Amino acid sequence: MTLTKTLQPKPLREVRLAREKLHLEGLVPSGVLRAEIDASWRRSLNHGVPVSGQHELSLQTTASLDLLLANNQLLIDAAMPAIDYLNQRQGKDGLIILANADATILAVEGRADRLKGSGVPDITLGACWSEAARGTNALGTTLVEGRPMLIDCGEHYLDRLSRFSCTSVPIHCPQGDILGVLDLTREGPLGRVHDSTALLGMAVSQIESRVFNTSYSEHIVLAFHSRRQYLESPWQGLLAVSLSGQILAASGQACQLLRAERSVLVGQRCEAFLGLDGLQLLARLQQDALGSLQTAQGEFFYKTLRAPQRSPNVLTAPRTAPKTTPPAPDLEALAGSNARYA
């Protein structure tokens, strides 16, 4: 997971100078901001976002909000345990925010009441925080950059967000696309960056695992790693395999562990990478929820997340036409021309 470094006091002063130049000349000065912040400010400027803009954007209606939540129920259900945990650890000092792939907020936990009184009442359900709508912010910028983002005090594009710092980590679906973003927002500087980013990274790993598992409820789902201690960590790989032995999905970590691109893995037979076909793998997983496999890439330790409780014999039994009883032979036909049986 690639993370950017927090700013030192001198760069923070330079950020203030960059903001003054933006106000006076309508331009982003070159060579002042961090590269990713510079690029984001320029995108925000090109989108026409007013740097002094307030929160005039309309929110979702009740009906559309219900539809929004219904359409993102898989992500919400997968994320809530992690959000509740983060709220216990970080909720007293900030906000834990979940957004979808459009940067629309799906859940907010923490000191929402305090932040509403701080000029950001639009951190609420149904509000869109894309870069095009709100300028540089961790939710929207993470979606553009496709990686974890740190936004320190003063680095947000909007003036009213200058005293806030944010850390966001993207959430990926089993196919590798970004499904949403998990964000931690607080007043004041980033502070202990590694603590918050590591905590968010662990939470996102759990969310992705739950989404992965739920998405393949009728198939084999297993977590694996070359080191047993790394199971149930953000570095474990996830695979979904059909009962016929076809690889259906692979997490990013799985691709790294198997040293293969997702496009190469998906659709292939699992024996090419795991050394067992689908039925052998299912039998092994049903027998041992924890174990190891010998593969072309070496030994992998695994944990079964899902294995259909069905007999392999039942799964492989070919469909056969029902047996029919042949009609009783006609006695006269059997007798033929033999007068003895006529």
TrEMBL record:
Region (Disordered): 312-342
Domain of life: Bacteria
Alphabetical list of Gene3D superfamilies matching this protein: 3.30.450.40
Location of the GAF domain: 117-208
Pfam family, one: GAF
Protein's name in the database: GAF domain-containing protein
Species assigned in the record: Pseudomonas helleri
Top-level taxonomy: Bacteria, Pseudomonadati, Pseudomonadota, Gammaproteobacteria, Pseudomonadales
